[in-house]
Amino acid sequence: MVEAKIFAGPRVRRVRNGLGLTQTAMADALSISPSYLNLIERNQRPLTVQLLLKLSSVYKIDLDDLQGESGGIASQLREVFADPLLAGEVPSGQELVEVAEAAPNAASGITKLYRAYKEQAQRLSDLSDLLAREGHQTTLSSARLPIDEVREIFERRPAHFAQLDLAAEGFHAVLKPGDDLAQALKSWLQKNHGIVVRSMPVHAMPNLRRRYDRHSMRLFLSERLSPQDQLREMAMEACLLALTEEIGTELQALALSGEEAKRIARFELARYAAHALMMPYGAYLAAAQRARYDIDILRGRFNVSFEQAANRLVTLVRPGVSGIPFFLMEIDSAGNRFRKAGAQGFPQAKFGGLCVKLNVHAAFSQPGQVLAEQVEMPDGGAYLTIARSLDGPQAGFGERIRRTAVMVACDAAMAKETVYGDVVGIKAGSIAIGPSCRLCERQGCLSRAEAPLTRPLGLDEMVTGLSVFDFQ
């Protein structure tokens, strides 16, 4: 029978140092030479079962102590080195395991420092938001991924690209689609570029929405997509071909720092152009005004999805020919935000969008239902909010559907111009919200998740408030 061997040198060294022994003293007690113990501690010789038993009997050590907890520390280190600041510093996870094995206390110290860094970064972000609300400009920044750079630029500018809208209207006139834009796009792609559009089954394209095969000149669309989403994918491909110059001009104006950020932004601009082609500016604005911005009516009239119709609403801000200045936010059920746009730049400083009392969170509990409410900020600012859940690509049996929720909002003063304002007007009062718990000073809020950054905690043992986080 082959004797089991274990390499655990750093753990043996920790045991020896914890007992205050020299290598010579421990070697004598274990009946081995100091040089052999030195090799063991440097992982150049294994710990045999006999030596493990000797360690246990001489020093009364639980053998589990030699197993250590390097797995947990290594997983924490993986989280640290997954940060964009440290991306590429460690070539493999095995190196992190070796660090956790050799120096667990130092590894634990690194994770504590990283948690403190993240906490301070969050506090700085909260302070930046607070200063912005008070009209102060800040230059606080942190390491960003290319997608973060693109999102920040898109969120801080008007959600309107004039050249793309004009070019898309002209392209729409050339197509003359009538009531069937999908067929018009298929014909245009085949006639002008030799591209044939095909719908592909899930097993043939399990992880993709769309794939353009340059060799066979075929555009493959996943059958997971709804007809409206398939239409958008075709429109994006057509716009990338027909509006290349206009997309390039708008992309250049964004002044992005890297090629990856430019690639992401180009995709977003193509998405914008696709919406502009599916819902031409003039026709969509006129229809929106006649329907009093009823998103369900608009999506039926233009044969688009609720999400597409809502996104198009926030772009209707052409100078001189503008609709209501809406802004939009889309989140998932965990509260992750991955789209913010509109109202000349998402009003982060005034509105925030992180309050759990917003109806965009309630939309998940009422799938498919449109929720309209009037909300009021601590400074008295009021907004009309319209929210609805959205279902992603068709899921197969055993798969969990991707569900998000979108919220479209505008200043409450304009609510009367919408069908939603009729319903909201019946209700007494507004929902009291805040920009985020860290920046909100509303007393007695049942939904509070964090203490406000601007107030000390109330630690009165004789009094307990309604909120989990009482403050003075």
Key terms for this structure?
alpha+beta; 6-stranded mixed β-sheet; ScfR_C; 472 residues; 46% helix; 434 Repressor (Amino-terminal Domain); DNA-binding; globular; single chain; Arc Repressor Mutant, subunit A; HTH_RamB
Explain briefly what this protein structure is.
The chain has helices at 9-19, 23-30, 34-41, 49-59, 70-81, 93-102, 104-133, 146-155, 162-175, 181-193, 227-242, 244-253, 259-278, 281-290, 295-302, 306-313, 348-351, 359-362, 419-426, and strands at 5-6, 47-48, 196-200, 210-213, 218-222, 317-318, 321-322, 327-332, 337-342, 371-376, 382-391, 403-411, 431-432.
User: How many beta-strand segments?
Assistant: 13
Percentage of residues in DSSP E strands: 5-15%
CATH architecture of the domain at 145-278: Orthogonal Bundle
Flag low-confidence runs. none
CATH topology of the domain at 145-278: Arc Repressor Mutant, subunit A
Radius of gyration: 30 Å
Q: Which bin fits the share of residues in helices? A: 40-55%
What is the molecular shape? Answer: globular
CATH class of the domain at 145-278: Mainly Alpha
Largest sheet: 6 strands, mixed
For the termini, the CA-CA separation is 71 Å
